[in-house]
Amino acid sequence: MSKIESDCQILCKLYFKTVPHPKPSKASQGKVSIFNNEAGEAHCIACDEAVKDNSGHGNLERHIQVNHKEWRQTLEDYKRGSCIGGGMDRFVQVRKIVSDKAKGIFGWIEWIVMADLPITIVDNPYYRKRSNLPQTSYKTITKYMEKLLEIVQRNIKRYLPPTFGIIFDGWTCDSEHYIGVFATWCREDGSVVKRLLSCGVQDLPETEEAKQTFGFAAEDIGDYLFDVLAVYNRDFSSVEFASGDNAYVNGRLIKLMSNWILEKKRIIRNIPLVGCSAHRLHLAVQALLSEEEDWNHVIQKVHSLMVDLRSIKNRPKLAVVTALAPLIRQDTRWNSTYAMLERYIRLCIETDHFKKCVGFSVKTMNLVLTYSGRDNEYDTICLIKRTLDKFNEVSKFLQSEDVTKVTMSKTRFYFNELLKIHPELENYLGEEGDNVSDPYFEKAVVKIQNALIQGLDKVKLDAQEARAVKFYLKDDVAASDDSDKSDDENEKSFIKEADAQYDAKVKKNKKEFPYRSTMHICVTSVIVERLFSRCGIIMRPHRRLMDPSTMEMLVMLRFNRDIWDEFIVDAAIKEAEPVRAQTPSNLTTPISASSSAQVHADTDSD
Question: Which of 19, 22, 287, 520 could be stapled to 35 by a disulfide with Cβ–Cβ 3.0 to 4.6 Å?
Answer without folding.
Answer: 19
